[in-house]
Design brief:
The chain has helices at about 5-10, 70-75, 80-85, 185-190, and strands at about 20-25, 30-40, 45-55, 90-100, 100-105, 110-115, 115-125, 140-145, 145-150, 155-160, 165-175, 200-205, 210-215, 220-225, 230-235. By secondary structure, it is mostly beta strands. The protein has one domain.
Amino acid sequence: MTNDRVADEPAVLRDSAAAVFGRVDGMHGTRYIEIFLRGLEARTGKLVAACYNTMFTEDGLPESRDTAPQALVEGIDFDMLKAEYGLLGASLNGPKIWTPDWSEIQIGTERDFHGIKAAWVAQLDLKQGGAVAHVTPYEPMTIARESRLGWSKGSTVMVLDDAEGNSWVMKGFQLGLEPRFTYEDFLANGASYFGDLPTGWAFRVVTLEQELIETPVAGVATIMPDEFFNVYDKAGPGQMNYQP
């Protein structure tokens, strides 16, 4: 690595340097967004995106359980963020609704993005030329995230089963800026809404008979979006304590 390459690397890609573990309980149903700031990592030359989440700020969970008010989200100028931080791109994930009940995660630098606060929590690996908003539905990807997520015994979860026998647990339910469905509606009727599920895949709703805990091996999680941009984490060995 040369000093020139380090100098060229956007400072936000080093926002994990002072990260410390934090825990949030009672997070199910919380509204949040993630902001992805895209650039070239100096150490590897890879295209990556630093991920900032509005739920993990020093302010904690508000009584409203809304960490991403609509007006503030609509006020973010992503072109301005790109220029401000010297990035290749900046994009929005969400607004979404969290489905886990608790989380332990490394929390890095907190930044104010045009009035909405969000803290560094992860780094996503991207394909060359790709953008977070242009991911392919049902195509797994990896994200560097030192974390644990938990769904309590008795919680209701939404699951996709793929044709290879893997199960994927919904972690974030997509609202977007113009919601098509409510969380409650999708929970009740989601199976009828899918139009592009790959052959051999199926959607189901499960009530957990024991606590489900996600602890990605080596701090790298395997995740996947569906056609609605809901996000799922892979269940089973290497990531979760069992496959619901």
